[in-house]
UniProtKB/TrEMBL annotation:
Residues 1-20 form the signal peptide. This is T9SS type A sorting domain-containing protein. Residues 41-112 form the Secretion system C-terminal sorting domain. Keywords: Signal. InterPro entries: Secre_tail.
Amino acid sequence: MKRMVLMCMVVLLCSYAGQAQDNTLSGNQAPQNETVQKIKVFPNPATNVINILGLKNSLRADIVISDIYGNTLLKYQWQIKTNALNIPVASLNAGIYMVTIISQEQKVQTKFYKK
């Protein structure tokens, strides 16, 4: 069973290899009065850094990178300028990760692949 799940994950990852990830996110569901946010994550798969474009500028944002099991691996607290972030991921092993960005202006969560 574990092998089957792992094989499915590898097939899905291969289909995304070499493409920027384009997401429409704003938490789980956007309330009616809130606009849906479009972000781009690249490169995906990443080696040293991931770039996230389309964020709202913020004086203080909590950035959390976790594995697919929800274990927190990296935590940062940065200011978002020019609607973008560059997050170092060189210390991570190859695999699938989630990045969560929480600030007063937004909550964004997306996944990326590290090779």
